UniProtKB/TrEMBL annotation:
Protein name per Swiss-Prot or TrEMBL: Histidine kinase/HSP90-like ATPase domain-containing protein
Keywords: Kinase, Serine/threonine-protein kinase, Transferase
Gene3D superfamilies: Histidine kinase-like ATPase, C-terminal domain
Pfam short name (any one): HATPase_c_2
Coiled-coil stretches noted in the UniProt entry, renumbered to this chain: none
Domain Histidine kinase/HSP90-like ATPase span(s) in chain numbering: 27-138
Length: 152
């Protein structure tokens, strides 16, 4: 990643269909991931064997949401904006004074590498504070062309 901090950046202007999950506990993540996979399937994204971009989105969603649930404060809101060129993932929590902190000099076997992973999967990433909420975001590319419009 090159930098030891997650960059402080405003959220890009995301235009597209909005998918949102209100999360209160880590135990809700399997259901949220399944729901995200279902929505991807409904808009024409193939499974991981044909195109891994959808599964990369699910992985980034899980990493950012689990970080917010473990290290932030409830409520946590995970939002995916499905645009024509990719996805904008935004996860907010009520801990605006706690900035995202990628692990440094930690054995990957101990975990805590999620922010590094999301940074590598994304074309842009950052965080900002707005109205008492911390927002951590990432833009992920999609490689499937001519997909149908998303339905909520």
């Amino acid at each position: 990643m090159g930098r030891l901090t997650w960059p402080l950046r405003a959220l890009p202007d995301g235009r597209g269909d909005v998918w949102r999950w209100d999360l209160g506990a880590v135990a809700e993540l399997p259901s949220a991931r399944a729901s995200l996979r279902d929505r991807l399937g409904c808009v024409g994204f193939p499974d991981d064997e044909e195109d891994p971009s959808g599964e990369r989105l699910v992985l980034a969603f899980d990493e950012l949401a689990s970080n917010a649930l473990r290290h932030g404060a409830s409520p946590v809101v995970a939002t995916v904006i499905a645009g024509s060129g990719g996805w904008l993932l935004d996860v907010s929590d009520r801990a605006p004074d706690s900035m995202p902190a990628p692990a440094v000099d930690r054995d990957p076997a101990q975990g805590g590498m999620g922010l590094h992973l999301v940074a590598r999967l994304s074309v842009a990433h950052g965080w900002y504070v707005d109205d008492g909420c911390k927002h951590v975001w990432a833009c992920l590319p999609s490689t499937v062309e001519d997909r149908e419009a998303a339905y909520v």
